[in-house]
Specification:
This protein is α+β, with helices and mostly antiparallel strands. The chain has two domains: 259 residues, no CATH class; 148 residues, Conserved hypothetical protein from pyrococcus furiosus pfu- 392566-001, domain 2. The strands form four sheets. Strands 1, 4, 5, 6, 8, 9, 10, 11 and 12 form a nine-stranded mixed β-sheet that branches. A hairpin with a 5-residue loop joins strand 9 and strand 10. The longest helix is centred in the N-terminal third of the chain and has 16 residues.
Length: 422
């Protein structure tokens, strides 16, 4: 069963929270982060993307960058930009974006649960990205960005969340992208006990939706911290990492699309002939084509859209990974026809979150930067759970979740009284 705990959170002062809370560190380039934080001394990007304060020539992995992240956060605390809660709490974090209304429990999740598979994964992690987050976490002494997790819908937790949200939220604002962010502080002893017991008794596992590198890194740092202590009780803050847990029926997973630089030496007609062996092809003209069901793909080339329908003999619905649309596209087209063996490492392919729309795919091709684009039907949460339960992993860049959690809404410190060196 899932082991969670409340924690003493550090939260932005209510009058500054809109300026502090930022987009996650991994959804923008260095220059985009610099522009976002420009003229905003309170932006949490100064903690999670502290390289923006240095010359662009300096590596984002330089030791000075991690030291600046540490100093910036603990200076925020000294300046009362962040305030420390009076006791260990849970928090409810609601995000509203159009028709999407999702409420997650902000809590500490156990590094032991991560190690023993109660917290389930569906992606590989990259050593370079892990090492970056390990250095950031171990230098700053905080978990700055939450790991976004899901669990199978639970009626008891839904009812409890609804009751707790009858109170006025401690935080309520809309970010520049139109998403409404609200936060409730759950500090009642009986409410806290009820939540802990509910997860212990009724929720057998949680699933990482977004944040595999953060989860892997915080867990490794947690175990490193254990080794440095002669006695470990189990409730020390380093035994838990910052997560937001959402019921699966509220999670909004959208398309994660592809663009490719060339046709691997094929002419357009040769390419279409090869595709036709495994897909039924229909021309959609200049009208953008976004798939509305599984095993149908959109393809944009030379100013024209096509719909591709995978032929039945080329996909296996019994295979948790092989039945994914991105697996079908890779196994039957990207690899055998376009020669893209590994989507993680091949620089001929790029990935575009569906939030950017079909026009972004068209512009990347029309500009000449890329030669072809593919729109893909999104992965469902049932598929994600099935892959994670099987112990397999999805192809890279399979899932894109919206709306994005803001970083800096609540910070979990596993080490306090961190020394500022500047």
């Amino acid at each position: 069963m899932a082991k969670i705990r409340p924690f003493i959170g550090y939260r932005p002062r209510p009058d500054l929270v809109e300026k502090v809370a930022s987009r996650p560190y991994d959804v923008m380039s260095r220059e985009e982060a610099r522009e976002d934080a420009e003229e905003n001394p309170y932006s949490f990007l100064r903690v999670i993307r502290s390289e923006i304060e240095f010359d662009p020539e300096l590596s984002a992995y330089d030791e000075q960058v991690y030291a600046a992240a540490r100093d910036n956060f603990w200076s925020f605390l000294e300046q009362n930009v962040f305030l420390k809660d009076h006791k260990a709490c849970f928090y409810l974090y609601r995000l509203i974006m159009g028709d999407v209304n999702q409420v997650g429990l902000v809590c500490g999740s156990s590094i032991d649960d991560y190690q023993n598979g109660v917290i389930k994964k569906h992606e590989f992690t990259r050593p370079v990205k892990e090492e970056d987050r390990i250095k950031h976490i171990s230098t700053t002494g905080i978990h700055a960005g939450p790991v976004f997790c899901a669990y199978r819908k639970n009626e008891s937790m839904d009812a409890l969340s609804s009751r707790l949200m009858e109170a006025e939220p401690a935080v309520d604002f809309s970010s520049e992208d139109g998403v409404q962010h609200s936060l409730w502080v759950i500090d009642g002893d009986e409410d806290i006990k009820q939540i802990v017991k509910l997860f212990e008794n009724e929720i057998s596992e949680t699933y990482i939706a977004d944040g595999h590198h953060r989860a892997a890194s915080t867990s490794k740092v947690g175990f490193q911290e254990r080794e440095q202590h002669s006695k470990v009780e189990g409730d020390e803050p380093f035994n838990y990492f910052l997560t937001v847990l959402f019921p699966h029926d509220q999670v909004n997973c959208i398309d994660y699309n592809r663009v490719v630089k060339d046709l691997n030496g094929h002419s357009k007609q040769e390419f279409l002939d090869l595709v036709a062996e495994k897909f039924e092809i229909n021309s959609e003209g200049q009208q953008s084509f976004k798939p509305t069901k599984a095993r149908i793909f959109g393809m944009y080339i030379s100013g024209e859209w096509y719909s591709l329908s995978a032929k039945r003999e080329y996909h296996n619905l019994e295979d948790a990974v092989g039945s994914l649309d991105i697996s079908i596209l890779h196994d039957q087209l990207l690899y055998p026809i376009l020669g893209i063996k590994d989507q993680r490492t091949d620089d001929r392919i790029d990935f575009i979150g569906g939030i950017r729309g079909m026009k972004e795919l068209e512009s990347r091709v029309d500009s000449g930067e890329m030669q072809i684009a593919f729109s893909i039907f999104p992965v469902s949460l049932d598929q994600l759970f099935s892959v994670a339960d099987s112990g397999e992993v999805m192809p890279p860049k399979s899932t894109w979740f919206e709306p994005k959690l803001r970083s800096g809404m609540v910070v979990h410190a596993f080490r306090e009284n961190v020394k500022i060196e500047r």
